[in-house]
Design a protein that fits this description.
63% of the residues lie in helices and 0% in strands. With 151 residues, the protein is an all-alpha fold.
């Protein structure tokens, strides 16, 4: 093998585990999110518009009031803006999400199962990476001579 081929092989041996590590982290993250969604848990902030507030908005909208008229009477019960009025945009967003759930109720129930079905099977690359990781340890192979590993 010529010098360029040796450098290429060394480079690949140093950098392949990093790409596989990313894939491994990605797979673990998606599995964790799927498990949490099946348990009914999700990350992120709590919704600003609670179910009670949404019910109030829907009832008052049915009586002909506008969102701008309803907004001053609503008070956020929890979170950073506890005691303040939710924004008009938050109310419209909650109304749009409610309309979507009402229009497609089967989609909302089926979403976690569809998400699990979309997850890729374990790739051969990740199996190869795991065997390399066992061979070289957690940090991967040592860098070629004359080069410093970035830390």
């Amino acid at each position: 093998m010529d010098a360029a081929g040796v450098d290429c092989a060394r480079w690949l041996s140093c950098h392949f585990p990093q790409g596989a590590e990313r894939e491994n982290i990605r797979e673990s993250t998606l599995e964790g999110l799927d498990t949490a969604s099946r348990k009914g848990k999700h990350g992120g902030r709590p919704p600003v518009i609670t179910d009670d507030m949404l019910h109030t908005v829907l009832r008052r909208r049915a009586n002909g009031e506008s969102v701008e008229q309803i907004q001053p009477d609503l008070i956020t019960p929890t979170g950073k803006r506890k005691g303040h009025n939710p924004s008009v945009a938050s109310i419209y967003r909650a109304l749009a999400e409610h309309a979507k759930r009402e229009a497609y109720p089967e989609a909302a129930e089926k979403a976690p199962a569809d998400f699990a079905a979309l997850q890729p099977a374990k790739s051969p690359a990740s199996a190869c990476y795991l065997s390399l990781r066992r061979s070289f340890g957690r940090t991967g192979p040592s860098p070629p001579e004359g080069r410093q590993r970035n830390r």
